[in-house]
Design goal:
It contains 6 helices and 5 strands, in the order ββααβααββαα. The chain has helices at residues 14-30, 33-44, 49-56, 60-72, 92-102, 117-120, and strands at residues 2-5, 8-11, 47-48, 76-81, 84-89. The protein is elongated and about 55 Å long.
Length: 129
């Protein structure tokens, strides 16, 4: 079977082709700077969309679109708490991958312009994932 992705031709068995397609999809998702910035923030602590807007400096629809891509790739998960939807890394493997690529995580930072629960907490009270 031939696996064609981004102009590359890989001759492999059926199972290997699936593995390579999944790997190519993962690297495609991770090749976006804003998505890496979102993942970097989420490895520090779970966050809501408005907090991620402040971190990335982009509008809510843009952040939501990137979160959808990350969620569909299985890298993040979300839950609702009142009127806020919080996002977090799906598992420790994602955090380990980010550490290999980006280095150690820095301390969480609050943003004065953001009124979400994440930013209202003192950094020492912020809940890391």
């Amino acid at each position: 079977m031939w696996c064609i992705y981004a102009g590359l031709h890989i001759r492999s068995s059926g199972m290997d082709a699936d593995k390579y397609r999944r790997g190519a999809r993962l690297f495609h998702v991770l090749s976006h700077a804003a998505r890496l910035q979102i993942l970097d923030e989420l490895r520090r602590r779970e966050s809501c969309v408005c907090h991620l807007q402040a971190v990335v400096g982009r509008p809510q629809p843009y952040i939501s679109q990137q979160l959808r891509v990350l969620r569909e790739a299985g890298l993040i998960e979300n839950y609702r708490d009142g009127s806020f939807v919080f996002y977090r890394l799906a598992d420790d493997q994602v955090a380990r991958l980010l550490e290999e690529v980006l280095g150690p995580a820095r301390e969480p930072v609050g943003f004065p312009a953001c009124s979400c629960p994440c930013c209202r907490e003192e950094p020492s009270q912020a809940m890391p994932v």
